[in-house]
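quick one
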Amino acid sequence: MVTTSASPRDGWSSRTAFVLAAIGSAVGLGNLWRFPAEAGQNGGGAFVLFYILCVALIGLPVLLSETLIGRHGQASAPESVRRMARESGASAHWDVLAGMGVLSAFMIVSFYCVVGGWVLYYVGVFINDIAQTGAGGGAFEGRPAEDIEALLPGLFGNGTLMAGLGLVFLAITLFFVMRGVSKGIEWVATWLMPAFFVLLIAITGYGFVTGEAEETIAYLFTFDFSKLTPQVMLAAVGQAFFSLSLGVAGMITYGAYAGREVNLGQTSAIIGGADTAVALIAGLCIFPIVFAAGLSVTAGPGLMFQSLPVAFQNMPFGSVIGFAFFMMVGFAALTSSVALLEVPTSWAMERFGVSRMVSALVVGTGAGVLGVLAALSFNDLAEVRPLAMIPIFANANIFDALDGVTAKIFMPLGAILTCVFVGWVADPALVDGENGIGGWLHQTWRALVRYVCPAVLAVIMGFGLFG
Ligand code: PFF
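structure w/ 4-fluoro-L-phenylalanine:
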């Protein structure tokens, strides 16, 4: 245990465990499923380069700000903020920034588990394929590509199956959150993250050698300035926060289980670097196959689920590779959904003085209800437009509204408040005692947190939402 002696809470068993768990939280469906889909829908290279800029100039400073609030507070996210505020002589109401995060994490985990359910479905599809045609040949032998692409719409049409699979994924998440930090959450991260990296590299290597590598590089890394609209910028900011688990108090929550020996500056750089590398590798993994198969890059949510199975058809051992790929996506998704569920669970435990078990069960049940609504928004509730009054969300169904509001409003807003709190409100002595950086790096970080991040985020949000 590495928590301070004043705090008998459960915590990460080592520095490596914290790093792996935080990377586990960051790397997930955001990198593998959402990043390629967003890049494809927002013009490719312009989005990707602006995304990288957002990670470096906004994401990393906010990541460090969140982890330091958590480590200092050693409590649930809202309580950690209150502690730092009290010790700085500021209003405890600053906890609103974490309160909003708790709500967003709850909203995200509900639709996140629905997508986790899609992953389970494809794991099942490939197991079935191995059982039917054996492991040696490609996947789905003798079936036309349209049949394979039709799997996802087929699942979307079956509300009961989709809601059921989402609930199974949520139940798995709940299991690990109930076991607690060192025995549950940390276990998932330390075993599954290394397995994930090995599989990702192997599959990307294969796709790159056999697919359209050149076209992919040109698509992802050619910067066409005219494509950089305010909406594309907001999408990139939202994606950066989603991917780094920021603006929803996720990193405050995980930082609170870290001990004094962790250098937060260094750790934030490792987490941000690993997360961005995985997102780019995911792009390099998926687009060569998309181009080679002549599929549309703007396919959005379907991109990963429809393009890759088609590619696996033509690979030797395709069904085994398909199975391995979706297992890997499932692992990555699980280490993130566990982080998401932990945010409201740790808050409710503390707020209502209940056990981890009770808190997780109640929060999980609520997320399950919302998740079923999100799942049904692909079929029975397809016509429901919960945010019809807000122009950019006018056409969003329940699922898209949960995703859009959290990524485009709550996360950037949470990040702005975090920056103002850490940069202007909190006692600099407290902040500097936690952040583990010095010299010019410290000056740069402070300037980014005080001026650049809040200003840039406010402008991008303003133009992206109302421009
Ligand atoms: N960062 C995760 C992903 O990229 O899939 C999603 C996420 C996890 C967001 C945890 C927020 C969070 F607190």
